[in-house]
C-alpha cells in the first residue's frame, strides 16, 4: 500500500474515532476506495493505462455516510482542491456568468475562476431536477473532464436516475454518459439511516430543536419586524436579534424566494428560528421544494436552527411526500432534539 494512501485512510479513521463513529464494513471499503483517488496524476494514469476512470461517483440512500466519508477524505487529501455544494455552486456560477454575459466564453471563464488551480473537485449532493440545470451541469462535466480534474461526487441518485422526470431526462443523457465513462460508480447502501441513531450533538445543525410550543416570552413582537434586502429585493422577517434570524414558514417558503436569499442569510446569521411550520402535505408544491432547499443549505452550512410547529417532527415527516429530495430532508430532521 502506498504511503499517501495509508495516510489518507489513517486520517479518515482518525476523524471517525474523534467523532465517535464506528465504520461498518461497507464504509471501510469505501474509505479504501477513496484513498486510491489521492495517487499523483501521472502514477494514476500509468496504473490505469487502459481505463478511463479519473474519479468516483458515490450514491445511495440518505444517512449512510457518503458525504461524511467523502468530506473526511477531502480534508485529508494533500492536493489543491475545491468542494462545492449544489446550491452554493450554482448561485455563484449564475452570478459570474451574468456579470460576463456578453462574453461568448463566460461559462468557461466562470468555471476557471471558481475552480482555480484545484486538481480535486468534490461535488456534494449532486442532483438534477431541472432541464436548465442539466445543461449547465453537462457543461461543467465537459470542463472538468477536459481539464483532467480528479472528480469525487456524492449523490442520492444513481447516474441513470438523475433528472428522473421522463419529459426532461433526455436533456441530461450526455451528462450521464460522461459520468459513466469517466467515473467509477460506487453504491453505498445499508439498512440503517445513521442520522436516526445519532446521539444528541451540541454544535451546528445537529444541535437544533423541533419545538411544539414557542419558548415563553421569546416570540418576537410586531415592533421587532424588519425588512431584509438581498440584491435589491426586500423581504419581511419576524426579527433579527444580533446573529439570530426569526422567520415564519410563510415568509420563508410561501413567498417568491430562491436559494440566493437562503444562502445569503445562512452566511449572515449564525442561528435561525423558523416558526409556524405546517404539516408537509399542507404546503404547496413550491413551498415544499423551498423548504427542502432550506434544509439542504442549513445542513450544509451547519447552522443551528430551531423549528417551531404545533405538531411533532414525527407527525411532520409522516406527511412527507414523493417530492424530489424530500427523503434527504427527512433524514436530516431526524438529527434534531424534539
UniProtKB/TrEMBL annotation:
It holds the Pfam family AFG1_ATPase. Keywords: ATP-binding, Cell cycle, Cell division, Nucleotide-binding. It comes from the Bacteria. GO terms for biological process: cell division. The gene is zapE. This is Cell division protein ZapE. InterPro entries: ATPase_AFG1-like, P-loop_NTPase. It comes from Gordonia hankookensis.
Amino acid at each position: 500500500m502506498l504511503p499517501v494512501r495509508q495516510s489518507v485512510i489513517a486520517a479518515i479513521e482518525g476523524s471517525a474515532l474523534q467523532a465517535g463513529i464506528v465504520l461498518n464494513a461497507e464504509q471501510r471499503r469505501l474509505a479504501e476506495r477513496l484513498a486510491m483517488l489521492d495517487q499523483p496524476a501521472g502514477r494514476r494514469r500509468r496504473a490505469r493505462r487502459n481505463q478511463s476512470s479519473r474519479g468516483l461517483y458515490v450514491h445511495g440512500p440518505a444517512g449512510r455516510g457518503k458525504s461524511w466519508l467523502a468530506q473526511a477524505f477531502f480534508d485529508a487529501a494533500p492536493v489543491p482542491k475545491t468542494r462545492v455544494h449544489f446550491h452554493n455552486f450554482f448561485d455563484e456560477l449564475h452570478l459570474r456568468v451574468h456579470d460576463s454575459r456578453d462574453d461568448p466564453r463566460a461559462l468557461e471563464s466562470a468555471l476557471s475562476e471558481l475552480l482555480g488551480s484545484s486538481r480535486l473537485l468534490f461535488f456534494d449532493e449532486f442532483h438534477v431536477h431541472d432541464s436548465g440545470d442539466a445543461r449547465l451541469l453537462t457543461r461543467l462535466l465537459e470542463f472538468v473532464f477536459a481539464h483532467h480534474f480528479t472528480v469525487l461526487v456524492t449523490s442520492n441518485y444513481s447516474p441513470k436516475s438523475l433528472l428522473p422526470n421522463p419529459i426532461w431526462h433526455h436533456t441530461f443523457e450526455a451528462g450521464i454518459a460522461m459520468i459513466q465513462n469517466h467515473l467509477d460508480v460506487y453504491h453505498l447502501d445499508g439498512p440503517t439511516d445513521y442520522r436516526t441513531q445519532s446521539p444528541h450533538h451540541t454544535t451546528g445543525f445537529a444541535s437544533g430543536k423541533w419545538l411544539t410550543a414557542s419558548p415563553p416570552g421569546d416570540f418576537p413582537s410586531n415592533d421587532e419586524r424588519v425588512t431584509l434586502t438581498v440584491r435589491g429585493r426586500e423581504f419581511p422577517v419576524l426579527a433579527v436579534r444580533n446573529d439570530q434570524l426569526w422567520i415564519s414558514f410563510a415568509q420563508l417558503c410561501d413567498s417568491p424566494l430562491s436559494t440566493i436569499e437562503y444562502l445569503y442569510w445562512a452566511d449572515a446569521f449564525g442561528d435561525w428560528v423558523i416558526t409556524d411550520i405546517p404539516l408537509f402535505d399542507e404546503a404547496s408544491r413550491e413551498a415544499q421544494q423551498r423548504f427542502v432547499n432550506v434544509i439542504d443549505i442549513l445542513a450544509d452550512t451547519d447552522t443551528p436552527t430551531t423549528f417551531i410547529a404545533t405538531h411533532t417532527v414525527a407527525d411532520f415527516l409522516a406527511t412527507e411526500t414523493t417530492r424530489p429530495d424530500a427523503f434527504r430532508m427527512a433524514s436530516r430532521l431526524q438529527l434534531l432534539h424534539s
